[in-house]
Amino acid sequence: MKKLFVTFILILFTIPAVSLADGGSDYKAKCAACHGAKANLLPKTARLLKVDPKKLALKASQMNREEMIAITEKGKGKMPGFEKEMTKDQITSTVDYIMALRKK
Ligand code: HEC
User: Fold this and answer.
1) 8-65 pLDDT tens trace
2) Which of 12, 20, 31, 61 has the maximal Cβ count within 10 Å?
């Protein structure tokens, strides 16, 4: 009975891990804390990080896709790089998600 319970818990943890392959959920899991759910201005986070809120507004960013991918990999200023914890595919699809938000 205990084994069954453990298996059940393990399955529960695997489901979100699989769905993490799409940019939207990676964005929410890894970027939204600082950049906001909709990549809008986040004055409070900006104050905590002591950065210009405009720098966090990815939606308003003028950067192209390649520059965004490079910053996501290497980080910039107070932003950590993600190349160790995300695959190139994950980073690319997260940036594509941001690009799509920008068009809205
Ligand atoms: C710990 C907070 C934090 C997290 C988490 C974070 N960022 Fe950032 N990000 C920043 C800060 C601060 C800047 C501004 C850096 C600067 O210009 O000094 C920034 C800047 C950027 C920029 C450059 C925008 C521009 O126009 O200058 C991109 C692109 C970016 N982040 C993408 C991402 C992505 C994608 C993720 C998730 C994988 C992410 N960030 C997670 C804090 C964060």
Assistant:
1) 555 555 544 444 457 899 999 999 989 988 887 677 888 888 998 888 889 888 899 9
2) 31
75 Cα–ligand 1 center, Å: 7
Q: What is the pTM of this model?
A: 0.81
Asked if 20 and 29 count as a contact pair (C-beta separation under 8 A), the reply is: yes
Our mutation pick for probing the ligand 1 site, out of 28, 48, 55, counting the most ligand atoms within 8 A of Cβ, is 55
Is the CB–ligand 1 distance for residue 41 below 6 Å? no
Look up the CATH architecture of domain 22-103. Answer: Orthogonal Bundle (1.10)
Angle at 61 between CA 79 and CA 37, to 5 degrees: 65
CA distance 8 to 17: 15
Instruction: Locate the ligand 1 atom nearest the alpha carbon of residue 68 and give its number.
Output: 29
